[in-house]
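FAQ

Q: What does a record look like?
A: Structure on top, sequence underneath. For example:
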């Protein structure tokens, strides 16, 4: 068993699939321990990737730099759902522009990290 006494944080990073492999490689290369989970965004309903990284508080900022380096903002266009048809008129949806990413990162205090 090993556990850490240093203050720990748990970062939960939602990134785009296209950026995930390079980011995971860069994190692993710098000795971050990473868990990659396949996920899906509620709005676009497209696959994305959620990374769990538990690390010392002081390592969070360097991790953020790597995330900024590897995660690109992309523009997507989505067609809104048609309104409930009551007029009988023909509806032509106008795609709306959405900026996705670079990454959405949540940083939580991790009480303990145990490897049992
Ligand atoms: P999605 O939910 O598929 O959202 C994709 C993009 O669509 C978002 O990019 C944002 O630009 C836009 N969007 C999301 N919800 C919207 C809404 N209600 N109205 C208008 N536009 C909306 P990002 O903000 O970069 O988010 C990328 C992905 O990160 C999200 O995918 C979701 O999986 C996750 N995420 C973002 N914010 C989150 C949050 N507060 N809690 C949990 N997951 C979050």
């Amino acid at each position: 068993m090993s556990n850490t006494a240093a203050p720990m944080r748990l970062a939960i990073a939602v990134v785009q699939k296209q950026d995930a492999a390079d980011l995971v490689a860069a994190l692993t290369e710098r000795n971050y321990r990473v868990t990659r989970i396949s996920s899906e965004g509620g709005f676009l309903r497209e696959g994305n990737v959620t990374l769990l990284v538990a690390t010392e508080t002081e390592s969070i900022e360097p991790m953020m730099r790597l995330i900024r380096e590897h995660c690109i903002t992309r523009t997507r266009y989505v067609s809104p759902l048609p309104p409930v048809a009551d007029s009988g008129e023909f509806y032509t949806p106008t795609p709306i522009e959405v900026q996705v990413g670079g990454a959405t990162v949540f940083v939580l205090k991790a009480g303990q990290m145990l490897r049992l």
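Q: Is there anything notable about this one?
A: The longest helix spans residues 17-29.
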